[in-house]
Amino acid sequence: MNGKYFWGIILVLIGGGFLLEQFDIITFGDMFRVYWPSLLILLGLVGLFDRGSSKTGNLILIVIGGLIQIDKLDLLDINVYKLIWPIILILVGLSVIFSKNGFVEVRTNFNMDGSKGKKKMNNITLEDTIDAFTMMGAIETNNQSQEFKGGKATVVMGGIDLDLRDAVLYNNEAFLELNVIMGGIEIYVPSDWRVEVTGVPLLGAWENKARNNTDPNAPILKIKCFILMGGIDVN
Q: Which long-range contacts (CB under 8 A, 24 or more apart) does 73-77 make?
């Protein structure tokens, strides 16, 4: 389901519930305070059936919603909020392990001797796909593929700079899945590309500063993202 329609329907239902409460038909406010985390679960489930959506991000959304819902219903005698980060890290780790083959670059900010490294990584590649992961570190990638098909990038407490200004999109279209947890991703695109960004920001945001190209035949880069306490910038 298109995200616009999903949120439109949800807002109509919530507004209708509060309206009915004003006429003393139902006590919607109390019910909403208990069951609002189920909206996160529902949003994640809808995203899982969207071919262009971030599967890792949607699973994280389901986990967060599920744990908060368990807490609201008082189903477990434990602090479920302490479980959120370990489960998120497990999901991200599994996502990295089972990533599709392609250009893979994994970086942390620790050298082999255990000391912290400050030098920012950079790489020039002609690979047609990107599959990058960084945790507590940084990656700079200059992709100059002439048949760029997109790929996936995940950031956990780090950053990725992806320069696509010398790349050419395969069949004039490519898809990127971006997952950001307490970090940031910055993307540079050619001025003649159209860029569409959709996704779920939780305590974070994305900004699409790419030139507004109204040509329907222009190359298009579609970005689906999940952001938790971080940001994505497209330039």
A: 73/34
